[in-house]
Amino acid sequence: MPAITINGKPLEVPAGTNLIEAALLAGADVPHFCYHPGLSVSGNCRMCLVEIAGNPKLQIACNTPVAEGQAVLTESPKVKAARAGVMEFLLLNHPIDCPVCDCAGECFLQDYYMQHDKAASRLEEPKNKKRKAQDIGPHVMLDTERCVLCSRCVRFTDEVSKTHELGIFGRGSREEVGLVEGTRLENAYSGNVVDLCPVGALTDKNFRFKSRPWFLEETETICTGCSQGCNMVLDINPHAFNKVGAGRAYRSYPRFNAAVNGHWMCDEGRYRFPLIDEGRLSEPQVTGLLATPERAVMALAESLKALGAPLSILLSPGLSLEELAAWHWLSLKLGASAILASELVPQGKGDGFLIQAERSPNRKGGLLLGLAEKGARDAVSQARAGKGRLLAVSAGDLEPALEGALLGLLSTHSSPACSAAQVALPLAVWAEQDGVFVNRMGLAQRAKQALAPLGSALPAWDWAWRLAKQMGFEACYASQSSAIFEAMGADHPALAGLSHQTLGAQGALVREGK
Amino acid sequence: MTQLDAAMKSRFDQVRALYPEAQAAVIPLLHLMQESTGKADLDAQRAVSEYLGVPLVKVHEVVSFYTLFDEKPRGRHHIMVCKTLSCALRGSQPVFDALVRELGIQPGQVTADGAFSIEAVECLGACDMGAAIQVGDRLHGQMDEEKTLRLLKELKDRGGRS
Amino acid sequence: MSPLLLTRNFGDAQALSLEGYEAKGGYQALRKALAMDPAALVEEVKRAGLRGRGGAGFSTGTKWGFLPKEDGLPRYLVVNADEGEPGTFKDRPLMEQDPHQLLEGIIIASFALRASRAYVYIRGEFRQSIARMDEAIRQARAKGYLGAKVMGSAFSLEVSTHPGAGAYICGEETALLESLEGHKGQPRLKPPFPAQRGLFGRPTIINNVETLCCVPHIVGMGAEAWAALGVEKNGGTKMYCVSGQVAKPGVFELWHGTTLRALIQEQAGGPLPGRRIKAVIPGGSSSPVLTADEIDVRMDFDSLMKAGSMLGSAAVIVMDDSTSLVRALHNLTAFYSHESCGQCTPCREGTAWLHKILTKIVNGQGAIADLDRMNSICEAMVGKTICVLADACAFPVQSFTRKFRPEFEEYIKSGKRWSLTGWREESPAPGFGGGH
């Protein structure tokens, strides 16, 4: 491991590490635009120039690997002058769009200006004008006047999505990022270029003009759109005045996880968050009429006591581990057969990258808990034929396959099945509870709670305890999902010793089998 | 989708065979297309892109970067006037002005009969012949207004009109 | 003072044919080289002290020595015939008038480097050069001097020409490789250098046309004899281009010990009648300008470096007292801003900004403070970029404004636009219809 010094501070860094990453380890931030750990090195912005003892010329940190004995300076006068020079060049033709630019507050130019520049413009000549507000795809707007030509977006469509839509056309200071006429930025990962863009050249159409980022609260969570479980951040705006039709969640974007999604997520997952607020079932119903939670729980308990036929409980593989565990326990108490209803959730199409054909986020988790998967469809048709009773706990994904009148339906979203059911109870979605999901690789990850449940919605385990209490059973777990999860270790060795806390931000692998 | 005729495809094959990697043939093939069709437009770019299996955006980038490629047709006699220092010192501006005046077009335009277009270009590597212009494949040196008008007449008489 | 080596066949149409070239002694050096050990050939070129004639003046033999050991996979020689440095016109006549000389140099060099494939990258505007080289290659192949067994030896070599498409930056080695590979001509980050990873990722040597034309002569007469034709550390003969305001612009093959004054006065006929030399660019537009008092410098790489400039592409541009150096500098910044590939920030924005400031000055709207502003912009450009185009633009800006500051201040104070030559007042308008 080469031993180097950064600003005099000695440290050992694995061979092959570039100086931007090495500086980070030393607590020094080397500013940069074009460098990104998920893309090839471009070395064109020249912002990361650092001084290396013995070298008369400054070197770009992004393309300089550590070498034994290197003495690197990231804040010397030469370095500061070079940085200020680059900032001046980048700001020269940059439009001062900040008041109307979505990137304000998370813009590299703004941040670096405050940290490394603060000089007034010396331009007394006309600015270059380029094309603004171009709609280049279903999710992305392009403003080439704001662009600093770092080429991150071009490298993304070449190296990651491999769809080659973007290019930089022309030469010199007039060149522009763009697409070939008649083509659109339409790949399944297009939203990532917005994350990549260090300035407001590429912005999200969905998020356009909706909020300033400093009003948003971030929650580290995961996507529940398929079994990949990409790590992401959900942004909510707690200060939003509720406009009609506006949701509480504003946007989601990927979090780095080397084992799961790298730096990226797919567009489908990125733009799922409106489902947090749209079409929700937020109040209980009894025979299709609004009811209080207490009344609904009582009604359901009565039905369960008066069962004349075998009861099947369908559990969605989109529920959290805690929800699945609680209902598994309750089903045993009720003498019902709990079925992990994977076969009722249609498969999608995998793309060999992040998108999985398996669209449920927690099937592996359900199997880990010992839930059987056989017989979901049979249970539905038996109940239809009057030969059995059916209760479903759905993450909004089972409804299309449900027929006939259910004894009870717990769901996140509204549908005709709700009013058809004897009792319908509203469920909190993944963003409204702390829950663990096990992805297809066996990685248990946390979806952290970002929002309070809508209306009277509750996590499914909370309804399970209320029902149990109503029916006179002793609840065997405490009433916090974290406690539920920790206690699971006793019955499931694969989860032994894990807690919400130890799962951290990057999850933990669970061992297969019982 | 541009179909290549057999003759052009055979020329494409000959060029392609010169390189171990397909993309290296982009520029020579674009030259062939522009010489044949008069322009390196999107159709030409698509033909090259499809033949080589190189993404269209990359071919388009190349056309946008290099000055010899033009997506619009040029005149049969495309007149390049060198504007760089050595030629400028020997009077390239009056040569350029004479062309604009006589032909009634600006750079980027073509005369109505498609015969002429003009372009101010950077150093042609003919500085001892300054002021130098290049028409098609031929360099003409020591140009002044008078010689320019004479050259135009010659080209027009030879078959280009306007 | 020097025999004609490189230009000995100029004007002789006979030399365009392989037979004609051979009748004048051509391809003897190749025969001699093929009987030598390739490593010995590299040593010979090193001993001769041949320095790159594309602009950098780097020891060719040393560069050749950078190639790693053979691994059985392809190695390439690439000929840089992308002559584009303003004022330079020596490679074109070498290709047009003595294509076999270059070809012989290519074959010898490829043999020495154990390269089995050579590409001659010729700028797209040089139609005649491309045609002449293609014909020479065809003739050589027909004669067995190219292909499977060169001159019956075990060495095989294929050579073909490859056209550029109009970009000065493709004269930079790695931009040339990018262009050859079918991309925009954007220089690569270095390291790795082409000798390690070049064309198609393989070890590659790139040499200038004139450099390779020297090789048959080095082999033919021997390293020492060739070196002795020059001066210390600057061996052999050199082609010099003189253009601008001189009586007889042209390319001249001379001894390195020639002074710039002698070159201008004796070879190029001196300034035009009734005019005095005011400023001279000695080595292509990227080299710092010299005043009329500084032209007694010897035209070799080291002497010009000591004088604060460079030999570069040995392209001399003479400006006399009828010329506005402000307009001249403006002409050059138009060039660099147009040719900047645009990849990296200081060059892309700096060259364009410098040109905008000079446009303002040229149109009579400048301020004295603009001169210092331009200088600080140059400082933010030099040494900060992927390639040296930024430096190439900064050097003339800095040297013109420093050495001729009074003229610049006078121009600015006049508040008027002046013609490039002839000191005529012009109405503020861009020339060449396009913001220049």
Structural features, described:
The complex is a heterotrimer of chains A (514), B (162) and C (436). By secondary structure, chain A is an alpha+beta fold. Chain A has helices spanning 19-25, 77-92, 108-116, 152-159, 192-196, 267-270, 293-305, 321-334, 363-368, 376-384, 416-420, 460-471, 481-491, 500-503; strands at 3-6, 9-12, 49-52, 59-60, 71-73, 134-135, 140-142, 166-169, 176-179, 202-204, 217-222, 231-236, 249-254, 285-286, 289-290, 311-315, 337-340, 389-394, 408-411, 423-426, 435-438, 443-447, 508-509. Chain B is of the alpha+beta class and 162 residues long. Chain B has helices at 6-16, 26-37, 42-52, 56-65, 85-89, 92-103, 145-157; strands at 77-82, 116-121, 133-135, 138-140. The two termini of chain B are 34 Å apart. Helices cover 42% and strands 12% of the residues of chain C. The two termini of chain C are 44 Å apart. In chain C, helix 2 (28-34) crosses helix 9 (209-221) and helix 15 (369-381) packs antiparallel against helix 16 (389-403). Chain C has three domains: 13-228, NADH-ubiquinone oxidoreductase 51kDa subunit (Rossmann fold); 237-320, Roll (Ubiquitin-like (UB roll)); 325-426, Up-down Bundle (de novo design (two linked rop proteins)). With 436 residues, chain C is an alpha/beta fold. Classes of the chains: A alpha+beta (514), B alpha+beta (162), C alpha/beta (436). Chains in contact: A-B, A-C, B-C. The interface between B and C is large, with 51 and 61 residues.
Q: What fraction of the residues of chain C are assigned to beta strands by DSSP?
A: 5-15%
Q: Which stretches of chain A of 5+ consecutive residues score pLDDT under 50? A: none
* Percent of residues in β-strands of chain A: 15-25%
**What is the structural class of chain A?**
alpha+beta
The N- and C-terminal alpha carbons of chain A lie at a distance of: 42 Å
- The rough form of chain A would be described as elongated
The CATH topology of the largest domain in chain C: Rossmann fold
CATH class of the largest domain in chain A: Alpha Beta
CATH architecture of the largest domain in chain A: 3-Layer(aba) Sandwich
> Helix proportion of residues of chain C, in percent?
40-55%
The number of distinct helices of chain C, counting runs of at least 4 residues, comes to 17
The secondary-structure element order of chain C is: HHHHEHHEHEHEHHEEHEEHEHHHHHEE
Largest interface (CB < 8 Å): B-C, 51 and 61 residues
The name of the CATH topology of the largest domain in chain A is Rossmann fold
What is the typical, i.e. mean, pLDDT of chain A? 94
Q: CATH homologous superfamily name of the largest domain in chain C? A: NADH-ubiquinone oxidoreductase 51kDa subunit
